[in-house]
């Protein structure tokens, strides 16, 4: 069955915080992707927790997996990330509903492990960004996910590179931006970012993730109006990320009651990102 966005779907929450809650150390530069190699069963357990909380979609642990980080192991680990999510969908004890797998394609900045995905502007050309992303996308797509999640993209340069790779392939994907108020993290107007995908049929939804929940609420109707596509929205808890301490701090501002507004304004894929766990996803699912 082809991935569909004509009815609301619940996305999972933050994979890293669920793994950390289970006692796993994610302090090195490979973050949660390290467990693809070191403890695959932990990845399955995290995915399963989200499915059983009410998520329709699990996002793979491939966000930070790259040739720079894993070298020759990369192809097998990228394929493994999809297999683990699929295995979790088979094991999950859920009611009679279709469970989907989204293969995560994180931004180039995630590989640097220094918070660069929260500002973009890496100093790379579009061709260099294509050279970085294309092999990962090809491997993930061949592994058989239902959809690609091109996520936490901080600027138009990288978004244009990703869209150029996807366009014409027939592979369904969503594109979600990391934002700051009405702009991408790199400072470009969000309207320009959302307009980028209007004529690309492979992009089945566009939106925002890992951003302040209030920014997400303002972005949803803009994404729907500008792109003409369904909207995907999965903010973080509202806390701030300290790239030096590699920790989250500040006040949690996520309010699950905002889900009603997101649905009204055009969202069809709704979930959470960093610091939002299975209990939050269960709350979102109940509201849908």
TrEMBL record:
<protein>
    <submittedName>
        <fullName>Homocysteine S-methyltransferase</fullName>
        <ecNumber>2.1.1.10</ecNumber>
    </submittedName>
</protein>
<keyword id="KW-0489">Methyltransferase</keyword>
<dbReference type="GO" id="GO:0032259">
    <property type="term" value="P:methylation"/>
</dbReference>
<dbReference type="InterPro" id="IPR036589">
    <property type="entry name" value="HCY_dom_sf"/>
</dbReference>
<feature type="domain" description="Hcy-binding">
    <location>
        <begin position="1"/>
        <end position="288"/>
    </location>
</feature>
<keyword id="KW-0479">Metal-binding</keyword>
<keyword id="KW-0862">Zinc</keyword>
<dbReference type="InterPro" id="IPR051486">
    <property type="entry name" value="Hcy_S-methyltransferase"/>
</dbReference>
<feature type="binding site">
    <location>
        <position position="274"/>
    </location>
    <ligand>
        <name>Zn(2+)</name>
    </ligand>
</feature>
<feature type="binding site">
    <location>
        <position position="273"/>
    </location>
    <ligand>
        <name>Zn(2+)</name>
    </ligand>
</feature>
<keyword id="KW-0808">Transferase</keyword>
<dbReference type="InterPro" id="IPR003726">
    <property type="entry name" value="HCY_dom"/>
</dbReference>
<feature type="binding site">
    <location>
        <position position="210"/>
    </location>
    <ligand>
        <name>Zn(2+)</name>
    </ligand>
</feature>
<dbReference type="GO" id="GO:0008168">
    <property type="term" value="F:methyltransferase activity"/>
</dbReference>
<dbReference type="Pfam" id="PF02574">
    <property type="entry name" value="S-methyl_trans"/>
</dbReference>
